[in-house]
Amino acid sequence: MPADVRTRQIEALKCMLSLNSAKTDNSWKILVFDEYGRDIIAPLLTVKELRECGVTLNLLITDKREPIPDVPVVYFIMPTTENIHLIGEDCKDQKYEKFYINFITAVSRQLLEDLAQITIETDTVPKIGKIFDQYLSFCMLESNLFTVSAYDASACSYYSLNRPDAKDADIERCINTVTECLFSLFVTLRELPVIRCPKGNAAAIVAEKLEKKMRDARRDPKSELFKDQAITNFQRPLLVILDRSLDICSTLHHTWTYQALIHDLYKLYLNRCQVTVEGRNKNYDLTADDAFWQKNKGKPFPEVADAVHMELEGCRAAEQEIKRLKEVMGGSMGSGNVASANDQIANTVSSLPELMEKKKRVDMHINIATSLSESIKSRSLDKFFEVEEKIMTKATLEDSVLELLKNPDLGTPDDKMRLFVIYYLNTSDLPDSELKMYMDTLEEMGCNVGCIKHLCKLKKVASMANVGSAAIQPAGGSYSSMSNMFKYVKQSSKFMMDGVKNLVVGHRKLPVTRIVDCLAELKQSSETDGYMTLDPKIYKKTEGMTPSVKNTFSDVYVFVVGGGNYVEYQNLMTYQDQHPGKNIVYGSSEIMDSANLLKQLNDLGQMS
Fold first, then answer.
1. Span 350-383, pLDDT tens digits
2. Which of 403, 462, 564, 565 could be disulfide-bonded to 469 (CB atoms 3.0-4.6 Å)?
3. Which residues partner with 571 through β-bridges?
4. 8 Å CB contact between 217 and 225
5. One-character DSSP codes across 83-109
6. Which of 39, 36, 112, 125 is nearest to 81 (CA)?
7. Residue range 401-414, pLDDT digits in tens
8. Could you give the CA distance from residue 540 to residue 561 in angstroms, rounded to a whole number?
9. What number of other Cβ atoms are within 10 A of residue 103's Cβ?
10. Exposed, middle or buried by CB within 10 Å (0-12, 13-18, 19+), for 143?
């Protein structure tokens, strides 16, 4: 099941730290990784957990490292010429007692021979303990969310795939990186998926390359990667590979949910964000063991503000109870009351560590929510969100888009540009004269309008394909039929919310969610007509052969080539919650924020 992916990757890492032994080995060791390995480990294992696995030091392979000759080393690295050379230098200097080398992806025969030659020349062959291909080339941020290594995000970006001067070698590197990521994911799961994707874009190239790689691995008599009981399961997973150009709006749309807002304003990186509190920058880790975060990350911001307030009140009540008990113990009381008070104090003392940790978490979320509230008010983000929702649902606007763009007190130039892009992509026929008027207004307001050229080309391609663009189509229903799109919180505290609209969003399916629903449930739809079906389980594929799909899918993996976003992820999680038995994992080459995509679109526009 998809929820097991993160657990299985953690288990694989802990096995690696036990020197790839079936038995747990917590003896002292050094962990050396490259940037790829660091990004994979960071969201999964804390420093404390690494210590519990016997790791006394964890270091980058490129750092200057002092010899520790009586302790073994565990390497977790990509199979590159540079890394082989650095391991060779460590062997030559005899820095460690024993060398356990773990490659994130499969190492080539040539690099293995290079490593063997180095160890022979340095007379360190006996120091090589084990060499393993781990197939862990994916970064699991949450149980249902993964990306390609954050260190390699720029090489697989929307810009890299769509720039007109892209070299074949650069495109090939991007395709190979994404393919290796997905291959590693399913090796970890020991599953062979049915693959669905649109034709004629990067997603199709990745799908075909992945299918071939999986089929070759299964046919290889020396390979054990997919020879597992799981392969014989009747219920197989579905892998849906999509391209970012499918839906530009969801990334640029001003969001209103907690996790997506944090990423939009503070850029979550490996589950960590930086927030300015009282003039000082503070780093906060938003992790799986934070119960409040797990419960509220996908909720609208006003609900989160209320939840933070309730948590704070709970902590205050616990503090008052401790003070009350201290006062009771300080006064006179009968012997029976003393025994009762002692029991209460014992229970309170035992719960103090949990209370302190909870108070720390609450303080963190108060600081984050307060900072978010200030940004929302200063930039009128609630206004942008409401207007964009109305545009995408074809509702009547109170003020024209042009009036909003001309308002100097409304948002930043990027906020205005995001609003216009959403308006432009959702307007089927905008005359050139009107477009020029909008562009002139945007330039007067300090906006970079370079992206318009690329978006014009995107609309033309979608129109020529005669399928409409999911980025241009409304997301389902008219505004009048969605009268509950905006509901007001009836009993909301004013905590952090003065001057901010208490908008709570009704659920509507984004293009990615609609496609997943159609493909997983085998529904007919114009959005998925012509989608390719690939099956790596078929040993011999003949030309023109199309595998048949007869059963619906419970386990669905979605990957967006060119970058994903938290809005799509949360939309899919809402869909999963509404369909018991469905398990969905969302992945992408990177988790983009609006500023990142807007810059990429501007760069592409300038090259058009």
1. 667 777 888 889 999 999 999 999 999 999 999 9
2. 462
3. none
4. yes
5. HHHHHHHHHHHT-BS-EEEEESSPPPH
6. 112
7. 999 999 999 999 99
8. 27
9. 25
10. middle
